[in-house]
Each structure stands twice: as structure tokens, then as C-alpha cells.
Design goal:
Layout (H helix, E strand, L loop, with lengths): L2 H28 L17 H9 L12 H7 L21 H40 L10 H12 L14
Length: about 170
């Protein structure tokens, strides 16, 4: 069932090919004389912009005016001057060696203070984030800042003895 549409489509596509081949053979058989020269190849068609440029004929013309040094010397260059003279601002005073050292030391102090402020702010934000994680239970690790508490936790985790029981009187 699929073979029939395929055969029809092949036949439809083959008909123009055979028709063009027949035209070529008819042209060849109708001319019995051989030509000794071939027809010149047609030149590529120019774009509209190229055709317009060729139509102006600008390429065959010489430029009307070329600026040269001799022409400028004859014409006498046009210079303008002013009578208003504004003085330049004064140059900054030279910086002495002691002033330069004092400014460098001041800059170092300001940089150190700024670094300390940034470190303190980072420490505060880290502590706030850790506290929020502890409250909401988002972090599995316990963060204990007290060294004594850390040591006690380590001793309890490595100890093989059972934790001491409290000596409370039994409830009656």
C-alpha cells in the first residue's frame, strides 16, 4: 500500500528531468556546425550602489582641490589670537619628606581601623547566623565558644564510664 504513493511521487519527479534531457539532445542534434569560438562569459551583475557609483563618473575625474604645503603658504594660514591672558593656577607646593611619611602613617592607621571594623562586623554576622541556626535547628553541629565547655563535651564523648547518677532520694 505504501509502494503505490512512492512510485507515483518518483514518476512525478522523474518527468521534468527526462524533459530537460530531451531538450538538450534536441539542441545538440539540430546544430551540425561546430563553433570555433566560444561566446564571452557574461560579467557579474553589479549591485544598484555600484551602478550608481559608476554612473557619476567620479572615478575618471581629477580632484578639484588638493591641499599641499605650497597652497597653504600662498593662502597664508588663518591664525586667531586673543588679547585676554588668563594666568595658570599656581603649582601645588612640593610635599616634604616628613609630610609624606605622616600622610602614609595616617593612611595605614585608617586602613587598620577599617579592617578591624570589617572583621568585627563579620564576627557579629557569623555569631547571629550561628545563633539563628541553633534556634531553628538548621545545623547539625553544635557551636560552643567556651573552651571549658568544649573540653567537658570532649571528655564525655571519649569517656568509657557511664555518667554519674544523681543521688536524689527515691520518690514515694
Amino acid at each position: 500500500m505504501k509502494a503505490l504513493p512512492i512510485a507515483i511521487s518518483l514518476a512525478v519527479l522523474a518527468v521534468p528531468l527526462f524533459a530537460s534531457a530531451g531538450d538538450d539532445q534536441a539542441k545538440k542534434s539540430s546544430t551540425s556546425a561546430t563553433t570555433l569560438s566560444t561566446e564571452p562569459q557574461q560579467q557579474a551583475v553589479d549591485s544598484p550602489l555600484v551602478r550608481a557609483a559608476k554612473a557619476t563618473g567620479r572615478l575618471n575625474k581629477k580632484p578639484t582641490m588638493v591641499i599641499t604645503n605650497e597652497m597653504l603658504a600662498k593662502a597664508g594660514g588663518h591664525l586667531t589670537t586673543t588679547t585676554l591672558n588668563i594666568p595658570l593656577p599656581p603649582a601645588p607646593p612640593p610635599v616634604s619628606n616628613q609630610q609624606a611619611q605622616a600622610e602614609a602613617a595616617q593612611k595605614q592607621r585608617l586602613d587598620a581601623i577599617e579592617k578591624a571594623k570589617k572583621a568585627e562586623a563579620a564576627k557579629k554576622t557569623r555569631a547571629a547566623r550561628n545563633a539563628a541556626d541553633d534556634i531553628y535547628g538548621e545545623n547539625a553541629e553544635e557551636r560552643i565558644d567556651d573552651p571549658a565547655t568544649q573540653e567537658r563535651v570532649m571528655q564525655q564523648s571519649t569517656s568509657t564510664q557511664a555518667p554519674p547518677e544523681s543521688k536524689k532520694p527515691p520518690l514515694e
